[in-house]
Amino acid sequence: MLAKLAQLDRITSKVLDWVALAASAFVAGLLVFLVFSRYVLNWSIVGLNELSVLAAMWLYMIGALIASRRREHLVVDLVPQLLSNPWAQAVHRVFVALVTLVITCFFVAWTYQMFAWGVKRPQTIPALGLPLWVSQAAVGVAAVGCCAYALRDVVTGMRALAEAKRASQPLTGRV
Question: Structure pTM?
Answer without folding.
Answer: 0.80
